[in-house]
Amino acid sequence: MIDKNGLKLTTITDRIGDEDSARKLYESIRWPEGPVCPHCGEINNAGQLQARPDSKKPVRKGVWKCYGCREQFSVTVGTVFEDSHIPLHRWLLTAYLLCASKKGMSSHQIHRMTGISYKTVWFMTHRLALPDRKSRTAFRQEKQRSRQSRNILKKTGASTGKK
Ligand SMILES: [Zn+2]
User: Fold this and answer.
1) At what angle do helices 107-114 and 118-128 cross, to 10 degrees?
2) Beta partners for 65?
């Protein structure tokens, strides 16, 4: 379903109208060879958790059980989508828009295009750009350090030079 030209916007909009289909799409992207257990690394040796016929409790959707280590997991474990209340299809749409445009896309523009609240878009784009942000922070700190050392030089210069 993903051709060599990459993911298309229609693939996204046709296939991720709801959480269920968004999860299935993301599973097929992240796990092309079948589910990968994040606990023991076994590939395609897990089954989707099913509710027992006599059980009244609904089973959480998208939960897999590894036959190797018996642990449970879902496709978002270890990704930026983990531990958030934002539905996965909104994450995928935002991630798509961020990556689709060569120059990137501002949170404001994504907010206008999708109707998702600006605050939520801002949160998502910052999480999605985490590696970039880390390098930006490192860059800022570097700049700060060089400014500080320049200031120290200025101060020592002032105290010795003038009088
Ligand atoms: Zn396992």
Assistant:
1) 130
2) 47, 72
Q: Report CA(66)–ligand 1 centroid distance (Å).
A: 5
State the Rg of the chain over Cα: 23
Torsions phi, psi for 162 (to 5 deg) = -90, 150
DSSP 8-state assignment for residue 66: E
| Residue-wise pLDDT tens digits, 57-96 | 777 789 999 999 999 999 998 888 888 889 999 998 898 8
> With pLDDT > 90 as the criterion, what percentage of the chain qualifies?
35
- Name the pTM for this structure: 0.66
Q: How far is CA 121 from the centre of its chain?
A: 12
DSSP secondary structure code for residue 58 in this structure = P
Cα(45) to centroid(ligand 1), Å:
8
How far away, in angstroms, is 126 Cα from ligand 1 center?
A: 31
Q: What is the CA(47)–ligand 1 centre distance, in A?
A: 11
